[in-house]
Design a protein that fits this description.
2 domains, 4-stranded antiparallel beta sheet, elongated, Rossmann fold, alpha/beta, Arc Repressor Mutant, subunit A, 8 helices, 41% helix, 229 residues
């Protein structure tokens, strides 16, 4: 499989060089431009799997850059990395269609995890979903969204069903939080994260009929559905 291509548009020399090196060490191909105009020109003439934009840049700022890209009907995922921390700026970034908005300073490991989740979501779109999953004493009918148990059957809501299906697909492994948010809620932000936490709590309640089944919080990563033998 060929390496994923990332377009980085960042005008700060030291930061841009450092981030490009980190991304290359993670086996990504990275083109780095130092202003919005040259970034847009390069994007228009090449294919990229992901874009990372600063907001405050010469010639064309990061918000205008994404507006121009979306007007051309391009759906390439975009992450903002910026010092602009005002709520209005964060909301604008998401409204323009960014999949994430990180404020400087940030944790490079968190950024790499988010990038990995975005690429895994795109790569896994064609993976078929099984019709039924056996989890401990439960059998989950994906099509009917029916969680079957000898004591009580539970009909799941569409979001509950989608989330539980993802957990089943990643059974005994970590379901990245970002992947679930992007696939089900189409956004990764504070509000959607809190919403997903509510749905995780509901699923845990449904699963209490079998004490061996658990949904574990994996710190800073996501959730793991497993059966304790």
């Amino acid at each position: 499989m060929s390496a994923k291509r990332i377009l980085l548009v960042e005008d700060e020399e030291n930061f841009g060089a450092l981030l490009q090196n980190y991304l290359k060490l993670s086996k990504y191909e990275v083109d780095w431009m130092k202003d919005g105009a040259t970034g847009y020109s390069l994007f228009s003439n090449n294919h990229y799997d992901l874009c990372i934009f600063d907001v405050m840049m010469p010639n064309i700022d990061g918000f205008t850059l994404l507006e121009k890209i979306r007007k051309k009907k391009h759906t390439t995922p975009v992450i903002y990395l910026t010092a602009k921390t005002m709520k209005e700026d964060i909301m604008k970034g998401y409204q323009l269609g960014a999949v994430d908005y990180l404020t400087k300073p940030f944790d490079i490991e968190v950024l790499l995890m988010k990038i990995k989740a975005i690429f895994e979501l795109g790569d896994n779109k064609s993976i078929p979903t099984e019709e039924n999953y056996q989890v401990g004493q439960f059998n989950y009918d994906v099509k009917k969204r029916l969680l079957k148990h000898k004591i009580k059957n539970q009909k799941l809501s569409p979001k509950e069903g989608a989330l539980f299906t993802l957990l089943c697909q990643h059974f005994d492994d970590v379901l990245p939080r970002e992947k679930a948010l992007l696939e089900i809620w189409k956004e990764d932000n504070y509000f959607t994260t809190r919403s997903m936490d509510v749905y995780i709590t509901k699923l845990r309640k449904y699963l209490k009929q079998d004490k061996s089944v658990s949904i574990e919080n994996v710190h800073s990563s996501g959730y793991r559905l497993y059966v304790d033998d």
